[in-house]
Input
Amino acid sequence: MGLCVFSEKYVESKDVIGLERVFFDKYLPAAPPEFVKVYLYGLLICRGGGSARGYADMARLLRLDARTVAEAFRYWENLGLVSAQGEQVIYHSLAELLATHTPPQDLTAYTEFNRALQKLFPNRILQPREYAVAQDWLEILHLPEEVILVMVRHTLENSRKKDISIPYIDYVAREWADHEINTLAKAEEYLLSHGKKADKPVLRLLADLGIRRDATRAEAALYEKWRGEWGFDEKTIRRAAASTVTVRNPSFSHVDEVLSRLRAGGDNKFDIELLRSLGIGRNLTTAAEQELIAKWRDFGFTDEMILLATRKTLTLQNPAVAHVDRILVHWHEKGVTDPDAAEKLWAEETAAKRAARAVSTEKARGLDYAQRPMSEEEIAATATAIKDL
Output
């Protein structure tokens, strides 16, 4: 007994729509499900049923979009099953088609491969001509199915374009064939030698750093170290990269320095104390902040002097390391090297600023002349004079 059988009470209705068996054998396995729905409903219309008057009506009835309906009919037209003339579609007899017409390529010969290829394009339906190009990769370039799928996935994941065309991938396929990348081992070796381009997180990290290119082999190796040997997840790595963007030319080396410090338990106690004194809760200074701290050390400032400058910024609304830098650069230019001299200079400059503000206030008051009230007669006379102008 077969998998599916009619019930004993089954009676064939006059409303049954006939369909040649060859459709199930030759065309159904490789066809996208939405295209089958369109073909069958079109056949119903040919038999006098259905209410669709155009692609839009059919799309609404089948819960598809009009573009999918149009693509479906192009698909069946390329296979010779229908002929589209505007929005009128002419269905052909499959028996006559097989007797008089042979498609240039048998798209059903690689059904499983076609299905796997379609899964790589979840946002659109591949057309017969695109399957035909992919078939050339198998039969003309002699690339194995598994290598082609790796190549296509690699190209889609690493391209900056959202909609990659099959002709572009065809260019890549020919390049792979020229380099004899015809086994999975060779494909893996090729991807590694080109900076492990298939690793999408590496490309995201490059974008975070403002770098618009593929990763180098050294960069890919660093990323593998961070993920594998050091155990950082992608979120932590990207957060470390974000802390380097204030550097003039951020790179993987800067990210490596940040992660190295984080792996060692964060910054040293002084750096953390500096952040806390500014009201910053993180335990890791950015690469730019590290450069400033190194500069202050080169100026000869001690921890005490740096923290003193930090306390001087607390009157600001959002104190930051950059504000501390301006104070310390000023002290360095003035030759201040110890806390007593710094406090003295600060007091003198604060007093001078207050005195300057007081003088400015007095000048403003001197311009505030008293005004004599005007009588009604003076107001009327002034209004008349203005009117006569």
